[in-house]
Amino acid sequence: MNRYILLLLLMFIPIMTFPTMVIGYSPANIKIYINEKKITFDEDPIVVNGRILVPLRKIAEIFFASIDWKDPQVLVKKGDVEVILTIGSSKAFINRKIVFFEQPPVIVNGRTMVSLRFITEALGAKVVWDSRMRIVKISSEGLELPGNENLYKNNVPLIGPVRGPDFEEAKAYVLSHKLLKDIENMQYTPIRFSEFLDTYTMIAGKDEFDRNKALWLKKDKYTGQVVEVDSVMIDEGIDEERVYFILEQKGIIREMVQKIYLAPYNEGNVCWYVVARTNDKEYYYCLDFKTGVIVIENINTI
């Protein structure tokens, strides 16, 4: 009996660890130059599915970018550029926009390996591949490389997405500022589909005129100040049932929907966000709250 259980466990171990495994990679045997300076790595570059992968940490150090880990995701930030990667996934976010690339990040010997071209171009660099000499030449305007190897800044500013206040703080803020007189619903609403991006606190209820209203709050990560991001009157836009009706025209039925919620899209524009899934596809829809027009439609093969 014990032998049988052990056999089953051994059968399932590869499946459970698959997202971090690399199958069929080989040494890249290349030279990499950034602004004409040769770069060395503590884990040699590799080739997976025809793509050159390098240690993410080293690239972040060179570009003076900060890293924030939220396993299995990692946020890379440099100035106004934010890149969110997921280990084992070909989907990424660059400044809240969903992008897809051919080779997902993987783990090799405890190092997170990422596509060299993808991450450097996302950070604003230009990449040229010399196939005859097997040299990658990367240029980044304004980037100065010190002579020492320890480039990483230990004293980086606070990074990562904006978060909304907790429910008690949000409730106190709304009532004290007389934004609502009765609170009926509170929830955290991620922006652009991912909870690893900005997440606001949504509060819905009755205003002083007994109209149904929803508003969103965020909290400054430095000062702790709570501010209102946006608000809508519920009767001025489409409701959830209308969203389902619109999606049915796209072949998305109610049973496929994983998430559906209201949240700001940009200043003065609130949208319905919908994440749906089948066995082999993920669907991401964003519909304008007032008109029902589809703003975002992304379909990803799993």
TrEMBL record:
Q: What region holds the Copper amine oxidase-like N-terminal domain?
A: 34-138
Highest taxon, organism lineage? Bacteria
Q: What Pfam families would the database entry show?
A: Cu_amine_oxidN1
Read off the InterPro entries from this record: Cu_amine_oxidase-like_N (IPR012854), Mao_N_sf (IPR036582)
Q: What is this protein called?
A: Copper amine oxidase N-terminal domain-containing protein
- Please tell me the species this chain comes from: Desulfofundulus australicus DSM 11792
